[in-house]
Prior knowledge:
- This protein is of the alpha/beta class.
- It has 17 helices and 14 strands.
- It has three domains: 1-30 and 295-436, Rossmann fold (3-Layer(aba) Sandwich); 38-168, Nitrogenase molybdenum iron protein domain (Rossmann fold), CATH 3.40.50; 181-279, Rossmann fold (3-Layer(aba) Sandwich), CATH 3.40.50.
- The strands form three sheets. The protein has a six-stranded mixed sheet, sandwiched between helices.
Amino acid sequence: MFILPAGMNNTSGNTMEEILTGRQKMPPAAQIPRGTCKLFGAIKALGTIRKSTILVHGPKGCVYHINYILGMRGDRPSEIYTTSLDEHDVIFGAEQKLKDAISYLDSMLSPDLLFVLSCCSSGIIGEDVDHAVNNTETRSRAIAIDAGGFEGDFHDGYSETLCQLVREFATETSDLSLSPAERSVNLIGMLRSGPDLAELRRMLGSIGIPVHAVLTAAASIRDLEDLHRAALNIVVCEPAGLAAAMLLEELYGTPYIVEEIPIGCRSSIRFLQQVAAALGIPIPDFAGIPYPDAPPNTSHSPGIPFIWGLNDRRIALAGGPTRSISMIRFLAEYEAAPRLVILDFAPVGSPFREKIRSLLHPSVEILIEPEYETIMEKLQDEKVDLLIGGLLEQPMAQVLGIEHIDIMHGSRKTVGFSGVKELELVLGAGHDPDTT
């Protein structure tokens, strides 16, 4: 765990190992660590691709727990299977077992895409998943994905899986004679296929910019084959999508921009204006969009949106760096700010630490990959009464009697102008002056 001290913009105190690897050093024993394995990231990245099936070459426990977690978060993959490696397989190998599983799923389900993933166990015993895939005849397009958990964290799983898809579908299947569709964009690093994706499509479409494809939420095999046909790639999650966007630029010359997830009116306006500018089309004027007036007899500044009592709450914000940045900006629109920020990860040397620090008051403490005990201690020290995060924070909030709001669930709409309305309802619930 690393604490970015309040009022400091540097990361002094990191060990040489942390500086060289970009990873936080874990304590000898960690209770409820913030991060998880590369396999989780790979499954999350692939899980909503249409007409696809995921096969994990590993013990059944890996699939059970990841499937369970993703189901709780509202984005469980619809088709995920395991070869259920046992002790005999680990000792003597299980390549034939894997080939049989590939053939079985191909014949029974007939998916367009069959993703075959390694994991810690199959990686340790040297199972050649790629060889098994290449030597098994299938009607589906079978793709081997290296997802060994000891080889990286979940965010590595996101990024490397997206890059592997780009390479897989590059010149081999892409019709390069087709020119880019004018004004169209790809959303790169978008892994949630629910209402947030629908709102992004609607927002961009409202100013005449169609979304050509998404890498990877709700993508089809045709989308993956035609990634090169967009005029611009928009990276909406830098940890997941930046490397893939850079690879697409290298392969096809498609320019890219890195944008924050647009949560809040101002962020949504800025997002649309910057996309329009990158495409060289007229920049929309949203000056006429009014904010609701603050109730009378309040000290709230005129022209600023209002959620009753929000700027008096003692807020802690927990999550990944991308969504945390967007939520900090959203809260700022309402003259509110977190007292404590808890990041799942922020690699040493990444821009996230400096960016988040620049958005906060110098007194705000940022915890990076903290242990459970540290989070509980800091929540109490700051007298937090509203914890905004995901499912992992829910038990902490219950123990401390803190109000908890889950913004990470796949069914929660947070993005764009319609996301503003939902967040205002959720954050303002129970704090109307007529009821408190």
